Amino acid sequence: MNWDIIEGKWDQFKGNARIQWGKLTDDELDVIAGNKTKLAGKIQEKYGYTREKAEEAAEEWKENLNS
Known about the structure:
InterPro entries: CsbD, UPF0337_stress_rsp, YjbJ, YjbJ_sf. Residues 4-55 form the CsbD-like domain. This protein is mostly helical. It has one domain (3-65): Protein Yjbj, Chain: A, CATH 1.10.1470. The protein has helices at residues 3-8, 10-20, 26-32, 36-47, 51-65. α4 (36-47) packs across α5 (51-65). The mean pLDDT is 95.
């Protein structure tokens, strides 16, 4: 699965993202709208991750959607 699919079907994946990152609000998830850069930025902001770690976390989450 790629990020274009996630963006297109964000409403379906938003609940899974909410479970993974409980600190993200519904409004923040609406703004993220499946965009990898926005998701990584919010993960970085809310969890204090480095940019690289936040991007890795987003990628791992995406890969786990496939399983």
